[in-house]
Specification:
CATH class of the largest domain: Alpha Beta
Helix content: 25-40%
CATH superfamily of the largest domain: Glycosidases
Strand order of the largest sheet: 12-11-13-14-23-22-21-16-19-24
Number of helices: 17
Structural class: alpha/beta
CATH topology of the largest domain: TIM Barrel
Shape: globular
Distance between the termini: 34 Å
CATH architecture of the largest domain: Alpha-Beta Barrel
Oligomer: single chain
Number of domains: 3
Radius of gyration: 26 Å
């Protein structure tokens, strides 16, 4: 897999926060917004709420270095000592996500330039050009000063570099970026001949004869070379990562505490998470509900599962989420009673050992004054405050969950490079978007109660019974070979349409569409047949070949017709059996869903877009091949399990307004919150939760 080597931290690091033997609970603390007399009130209330970790200093560069080269750290000294005196640990941030006004005044050419040439000014949040030498130097300088002073401070248990790399801006088209991009291209391709070949520049007469002629893919009269756009996305990710690595290494020169940066795992497309995950010591994530989505608990679960997967299954940290509404969406819906706890415990169930918020105390001024907080504007008489205190008590009661692992039998392929390529212009259909298919398949698996990992297509997939490729438009030869070996070795692979189309240079594979997966799937795509807006077609499911060699067995839903839209393929069978045929549309009567035996496993292909309900019909025989089955729980019941050597922990969440049950619990099950024994089945109150411990199976 494409990656840079990971450098371990100091010899005392064991995989979690040094000196912390509990689940972490707290949030971003920005005391610089308040008079110092408020700080004592804050730490007293933090203890009441059960807070044991706060993130400090993330947007404080202008106060820490009010003028270039002039430090003022006295207030931070007093703050860290105060927190330490009250037993509250600190995740110390480097403030480099928001350079001060003096920086942009002194270095105006370090400002970010958008693709259309707009120069972004000061007065918001966001970083300078990641490729500008003055920014790199200033960022390392302030980070070094903090590490020298606080590297062994007893309150500091974690370093927090920058904030949400890639948000709100990622790509920079400034002159500094153009210079760095040419340097990056020389290192990647080696020669102009290799660059021209990789980008296919003979098309439209784009051949380069001098390196100085190669620029950033700024706005142009028509679409810009897609291979150049793809390389620029890779370069942008590498430029951001180089900034992180520079700060991380400056910290490591003076401190042996672990270093992280807060991802926005499912919401920031600028970063290749697999690459970044190997550069941090602890994986952490920020997550905010999509208020417009009435079932946004599914998106939350997806983000948590993705973060755990990037962490390699190890415990991870939720560094930000909200106690109630946020302030940047069109309609910032407040969380209903009990929703905050369900959100927090969903993250916990999916592997997070830290539950943190933005922020501790609600801001009176600035752009996020309407953002909810642990201590809201309404104060300690509010429902939100009461729920914050209750959640702290709950987390103390379930602290033994810390360190337990989540096991998944299913993986969804996630490759940011493929997503960058697929979502460029001039694809066969604007409706064929990678994220829509990822979300649809994940939602189906969530409804079926199957815990899901995410995986890179080149990683070891042998732990999984089922691998789903919802959107693998770009698939390298190595990745295709890996997926083929997975099938041959007994795995079940399900591939959706518009996959395995191009290689790493966005060039169509030799052998045509789906070329490198033809052996695994037993089918070839002769032509794409995208539909017009609003058009639909049917898929009639037939009988599927038996998995035991004893003839044919009925496919659940045999004879039923489900609706598809957006896409159809003109398929040529190369050994696969037809499981579903098109009814209507441009491929009427032709194969729509196929199944192919290869070695000990099975490769499935679906050549149209099925919605979440229709995917149930598709996945029933796929599950049968993989030896899986839906949980049978009610649709709005979410159950996730974490496993330790001597126990299994069940986090059960009820997202409905009716009482629900989790059946078939083993003898010896205990409710960790109440201490009560649970016999047979656990009752979950409306909009409520249970955290249970059962003997290890």
């Amino acid at each position: 897999m494409r990656s840079a080597p990971h450098r371990p931290v100091g010899p005392d690091y064991t995989g979690w926060l040094p000196g912390v033997d509990d689940l972490c609970y707290g949030g971003d603390y920005n005391p610089e917004q308040w008079p110092e007399e408020v700080w004592e009130q804050d730490v007293t209330l933090m203890r009441e709420a059960g807070v044991n970790l706060v993130s400090v200093g993330i947007f404080s560069w202008a106060l820490l270095e009010p003028r270039e080269g002039e430090l003022d750290l006295g207030w931070l000294d007093r703050l860290l000592d105060l927190l330490h005196g009250h037993g509250i640990k600190v995740d110390l941030g480097t403030p480099t996500a928001s350079p001060p006004a003096w920086f942009f005044h002194t270095y105006p050419d370090a400002r970010v330039v958008t693709r259309d040439g707009t120069v972004l000014g000061f007065g918001s949040r966001g970083m300078a050009s990641p490729s500008h030498p003055a920014y790199r130097e200033a960022a390392v300088r302030i980070t070094t000063a903090l590490a020298e002073r606080y590297g062994d401070h007893p309150a500091v248990v974690l370093w927090h570099v920058h904030n949400e790399y890639g948000a709100p801006v990622s790509e920079d088209y400034s002159p500094a970026s153009a210079t760095a991009f040419r340097r990056w291209l020389r290192e990647r391709h080696g020669s102009l001949d290799a660059l021209n070949a990789a980008w296919g520049t003979r098309f439209w007469g784009q051949v380069y004869g001098e390196w100085e002629h190669v620029g950033v893919p700024a706005a142009a009269p028509s679409i810009v070379n897609p291979a150049q756009r793809l390389d620029f996305a890779r370069f942008t990710d590498d430029a951001l990562l180089a900034c992180f690595v520079a700060e991380r290494d400056a910290i490591r020169a003076h401190s042996d505490r672990p270093v992280t940066t807060n991802f926005m795992a499912a919401a920031c497309p600028a970063t290749d998470l697999w690459k970044w995950g190997r550069e941090v010591d602890i994986v952490s994530n920020d997550h905010y509900l999509t208020a417009a989505d009435p079932r946004n608990q599914v998106g939350l679960a997806l983000a948590a599962d993705l973060t755990r997967s990037v962490a390699g299954g190890k415990p991870w940290m939720l560094l930000e989420h909200s106690t109630s509404g946020v302030n940047w969406q069109e309609r910032n819906v407040a969380k209903r009673p009990g929703e905050m706890a369900r959100n927090a415990l969903s993250h916990l169930g999916r592997g997070a050992d830290a539950i943190m918020f933005f922020q501790w105390r609600a801001s009176r001024s600035g752009a996020e004054k309407f953002h909810s907080a642990m201590l809201p504007h309404a104060g300690t008489s509010s429902r939100v405050w009461r729920e914050v205190v209750e959640l702290g008590e709950t987390l103390r009661g379930v602290r033994e969950v810390r360190g337990a692992r989540v096991h998944a039998d299913v993986a969804i392929l996630w490759d940011q490079e493929s997503f960058w390529a697929q979502d460029l212009e001039w694809r066969p259909s604007v409706d064929a978007r990678h994220r829509e298919r990822v979300d649809a398949f994940y939602d189906r698996l969530w409804r079926d109660g199957l815990t899901t990992d995410f995986a890179h297509p080149e990683q070891d997939l042998s732990p999984y019974r089922l691998v789903v490729a919802p959107a693998s438009y770009l698939l390298t030869a190595d990745a295709a070979a890996n997926l083929t070996r997975y099938v041959e070795s007994g795995g079940t692979l399900l591939v959706s349409f518009f996959s395995a189309v191009v290689d790493e240079h966005d060039a169509v594979h030799p052998g045509g569409f789906l070329g490198p997966l033809r052996r695994a799937l037993g089918v070839a795509v002769e032509e794409f047949l995208p539909l017009r807006a609003g058009e639909t077609l049917g898929v009639r499911f037939e009988a599927a070949p038996g998995t035991d060699g004893a003839g044919r067995v009925d496919t659940p839903g045999t004879g039923a017709v489900v609706r598809g839209d957006v896409w159809a393929d003109d398929l040529a069978l190369e050994g696969a059996d037809v499981v579903g045929r098109f009814v209507g549309g441009p491929a009427d009567g032709a194969p729509a869903v196929t199944r192919h035996r290869l070695g000990a496993g099975t490769g499935w292909y679906v050549s149209t877009r099925l919605d979440v309900d229709a995917l149930a019909t598709l996945l029933a025989p796929v599950y049968d091949d993989a030896g899986l089955a839906p949980s049978g729980l009610a649709t709005d019941v979410e159950v996730v399990r974490r496993h330790a050597d001597d126990a299994q922990y069940v986090v059960a969440l009820n997202h409905s307004d009716a009482e629900q049950k989790v059946p078939d619990l083993p003898d010896g099950t205990v409710d960790l919150v109440s201490g009560d024994r649970v016999v047979g089945a656990a009752t979950i109150p409306p909009a409520g939760f249970r955290v249970l411990r059962s003997p290890a199976r």
